[in-house]
Design a protein that fits this description.
Elements: E1 26-27, E2 46-47, H1 65-90, H2 98-106, H3 109-112, H4 114-133, H5 139-142, H6 159-179, H7 187-190, H8 195-207, H9 209-229, H10 231-245, H11 254-274, H12 277-298
Antiparallel strand pairs: 1-2
Length: 309
């Protein structure tokens, strides 16, 4: 099974979005048992059935907020368990200050990178089991991975277009960070003090992060939010959550989180406009690829700590 599986999309099976079953007619005033109207009695008022809301194909999902609650609990448990397991296994045997311990863990790519990959894998596995395996649905199609198709709006369908849009977005971010005051020595910058960790971090950012994050944010969260709040508010909410998720890497700097939220909004807007997670994935891939290439060049092959964000 691939992200672009052509299996027909799952029909709208969200129990929260379904109207309760009702008779085809609603009677507001009753009539006599024999079906005849007594003298002076008003005839029954019959109303047509209430129409059921129909969602576009990219918003036809088979999960609701109940699933989101379980997913968040599972994510919290996995985060604690994975971090604890990796820190316990790779923790040094001698006493260290908090700063020394942080640098020691960053020097171990098994902790800095391995724990993130394991967490991504567990979350995707949870979605696969609960949304696809147990419900007999195609995993990628259910989560919005569809081919780019021509629409009335004249949107481009060639994958490279979205990839290069993502590259252009990364250039815009470079320009914004050059204009505003950003903090120094953020956690993500500390990664590049260690060559092996830096190389694996960039590899993960290009090969793993776009696939996992787009599936989680634009494939899982966005369509559910869009059904609750509408498309435009959901684009904003999903983008802000995307920025906040990157907060710890950015030292919780408000300016950098705001920029990452803007990036998330653009990614989600592409997902909403095309109806496919594949579009936002390509933009994310282009964004991370250009940043990774620029870091490779600016650090002389990760042998020099970068001086810019």
């Amino acid at each position: 099974m691939t992200p672009l599986d052509d299996t027909p999309p799952a029909q709208d099976q969200n129990p929260d979005s379904q109207e309760p079953s009702s008779p085809s007619q609603v009677t507001l005033t009753g009539s006599s048992e024999n079906g005849q109207i007594s003298p002076g009695e008003q005839p029954a008022l019959v109303l047509p059935p209430r129409p059921r809301r129909v969602y576009p194909p990219d918003l036809q999902i088979n999960w609701s907020w109940h699933h989101l609650v379980v997913f968040l609990v599972f994510m919290f448990i996995c985060l604690l368990a994975v971090q604890t397991a990796f820190l316990t296994f790779y923790a040094p045997h001698q006493k260290m200050t908090s700063q020394q311990l942080e640098e020691y863990m960053l020097s171990k790519p098994q902790v800095a990178i391995g724990s993130t990959i394991v967490l991504y894998a567990l979350l995707l596995f949870f979605l696969y089991v609960t949304l696809a395996l147990l419900r007999g649905q195609p995993f990628w199609k259910t989560l919005g991975w569809r081919r780019l198709e021509a629409k009335a709006g004249g949107l481009p369908t060639h994958p490279l277009v979205y990839f290069f849009i993502g590259c252009g977005l990364s250039l815009l971010v470079f320009a914004l960070t050059a204009l505003i005051k950003t903090p120094e020595n953020t956690p993500i910058e500390q990664v590049f003090k260690f060559k092996q960790t830096a190389i694996l971090f960039v590899a993960m950012a290009v090969l793993v992060a776009p696939l996992a994050e787009e599936t989680l944010f634009r494939g899982y969260l966005y369509p559910m939010f869009a059904r609750w709040f509408g498309v435009v508010p959901s684009i904003l909410v999903t983008g802000i959550l995307f920025g906040l998720m990157h907060g710890p890497q950015l030292g919780d700097a408000k300016s950098l989180i705001a920029i990452m939220s803007l990036v998330g909004v653009v990614f989600t807007a592409a997902r909403a406009r095309t109806g496919s997670v594949f579009a936002s994935y390509l933009m994310h891939l282009g964004y991370n690829s250009l940043i990774g290439m620029s870091l490779l060049l600016s650090t002389h092959g990760f042998t020099k700590v970068p001086t810019t964000h």
